[in-house]
Q: What sequence folds into this?
């Protein structure tokens, strides 16, 4: 997804309309330094385009997810967050006590993926994952 215009081009190629609202939603996702929620996207968009509805944000996010342009992750806050798919697969360790979020390298999950395939004949989708527990500071 490198640039919002790349997504805009892809949406257009696939026959989807590129509305000003969709462009602002894409911009909010692309310009976010971390994962962003639908509510945070909506707040940014409605500040510039007051007539937009939160349902437009949700529908656009569902479309982008279906087209594999964004990933969706539940970091345990009671809402999901979105991330551009082209920024790579990465995973998080989420402390349930203090809320710390620690990035986990994908290679740490290779043996899990292999075990699931070998032992359970199950091909796991481990593109974007949050694992909950307690960090070292909260365990003491």
A:
């Amino acid at each position: 997804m490198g640039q919002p215009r790349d997504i805009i081009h892809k949406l257009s190629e696939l026959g989807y309309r590129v509305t000003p609202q969709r462009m602002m939603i894409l911009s909010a996702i692309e310009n976010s330094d971390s994962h962003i929620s639908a509510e945070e996207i909506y707040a940014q968009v409605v500040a510039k385009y007051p007539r937009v509805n939160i349902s437009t944000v949700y529908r656009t996010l569902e479309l982008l997810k279906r087209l594999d342009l964004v990933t969706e992750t539940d970091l345990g806050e009671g809402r999901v967050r979105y991330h551009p798919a082209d920024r790579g697969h990465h995973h998080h360790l989420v402390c349930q006590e203090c809320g710390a979020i620690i990035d986990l390298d994908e290679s740490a999950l290779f043996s899990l993926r292999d075990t699931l395939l070998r032992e359970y004949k199950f091909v796991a989708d481990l593109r974007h994952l949050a694992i909950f527990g307690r960090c070292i500071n909260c365990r003491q």
